[in-house]
């Protein structure tokens, strides 16, 4: 019985020894879910001697592992992030089991802090949650931060966020503009394409050029739009990037020029969007790192 629900036994096997005593083995297949952490499974055996059935209960939590849900949130003191401003990044790991895990903060794919068995909070359903904060510094070129969580020897689960600082524009008649570069939230199979999007606002003129490169070769399937927003201009540029099986080490670059002057440049590695086993990138204990992690 699982909770109050009966499960049919299968593969029962009866054996008799030299003394004439019998022993029996039986198996049951049970589908586990997150809500089973507080439940047990009971095996009941009835026989004419003794009259009362024999029972043995095992907690289902002994064989259950629940992978956490991760997200990173930010808390800033104002509406804009300025250069060298310190920003609190909080990694939220929700509804995981068991409670033991290892949390690591990464900055631009380099390890900056590892916490063994961070303090957790028990949820009413028996799972655990935690929040861990890292103080990050914003930069004009953007910095990518990631929170990695590892349970036992399972592949890591991660959440990513890119922190952009607002670029100062000094001088009469000139304004400030902020930029962001976004990609898909889910990984994709080789043979498909992903869309990357660059968005920026506050350009003082419409003379903006966006160039997309993959492995230093210009991509063809892109579209850039520049439209007025009051006295300034907003820019949106999208590109379709084909994924190949050997793109784990490939990268895409986004170059933005205003009046032929570079104002933005960002390089993104494609392994973060390519579906496959990236757990080997998390071999932080060894002296030689996987080149995809550097």
Automatic annotation (TrEMBL):
Pfam families: C1-set. Keywords: Disulfide bond, Glycoprotein. It comes from the Eukaryota. Residues 168-188 are annotated as: Disordered. Residues 68-162 form the Ig-like domain. Residues 176-188 have a biased composition (Polar residues). PROSITE patterns: IG_LIKE. This is Tyrosine-protein phosphatase non-receptor type substrate 1-like. The gene is LOC112827294.
